Structure formats: structure tokens, C-alpha cells
Amino acid sequence: MIKIKGYITNNSGAETSNVAGQLPLIAKEFPEVEVCHKGTINILLTMPLIVLKADYQTTAIQWLGKNAAGEIFDMLRIEFEVTRINKKIQAWIYIPHWSPHRAKPWVHEVIAPYCDGIQAGDECIIHINSEYASLDFDNAKTVYIV
């Protein structure tokens, strides 16, 4: 298991509107996420994280309409802890393949059941119970889920 500290950041609002349409379609394939709030918690991690092997990868899902190319989503099970409110919840790192966040390994989106009281700036810890490797490139100590 690895624990990575981070901070909750503001989202642009697009994440919430997109997830509201995507999540029911993802849940048809991966029912675990049916309990999730239809929005994301954006986090800025203290070290880069690259998920090479998710717990689940969807088929291409057409969420923008019948003529749009389908998007693939990766889900990685985590335990999400918000230190200020001393609460841990079952959650998933949510990786939409079209997201600009994929080019920023310090920034990730988390989906979880609704959790009252969290706010931008809160310190958080993600607990990942998956195989990983940590490599030190440019003193970044990048974590790879393998």
C-alpha cells in the first residue's frame, strides 16, 4: 500500500457537468460507482502519480451523443482521507482518457459518495492498495501503479 498526500483544489465546473452525464453510463459497466456523487473532487498531489493499470477500464462510451467517438475511463480504487475532518471514504481515481489532466500527473480527479464538509485547500491523503513502483526522475519521485 502507498499513501500520497495532496490538497483539494477548485474545479472548473466542467467536471461536474460532464460527470453527471458520464457516471450513469460508466455505472452500467462498473456498478461500484453507482454510489458516487455526480461530480469530482480535484486533487493536487505532492508527488506525480501515473496509473498504468487501473482496477477497471471501460469500453468506449459515447457520452456526447450518438455521433461522438466514445471515451474510455479508467477507475482505480482508493481510500480517500480528508485530514481536517478526520474522515476516510471508499473512492476511485477517475481517469477520463480525453481529460487534459492526463498530461499533469500531479493532478487527479476523485469520485466518491457525497462527503459534506470538504473544501478547496483541505489536505487529503489517498491510500492505494495496488502494486506500484516509484522512480526518481528530476527529484519528482513519480509513483506508477503497475
Contiguous low-pLDDT stretches (5 residues minimum) are: none
Report the count of strand segments: 10
Q: Nearest-angstrom radius of gyration? A: 15 Å
**Shape category:** globular
Query: What share of the residues does DSSP label as strand, in percent?
Result: 35-45%
Q: Write the element-wise H/E pattern from the N-terminal end onward.
A: EHEEEEEEEEE
Main structural class: mainly beta
What is the straight-line distance between the termini? 12 Å
Give a quick account of the main beta sheet: strands, pairing sense, barrel closure. 6 strands, antiparallel, barrel
Going across the biggest sheet, name each strand in turn. Answer: 1-2-7-6-5-8
Into which percent range does the helicity of residues fall?
10-25%
Helix tally equals: 1
Q: Determine the mean pLDDT.
A: 92
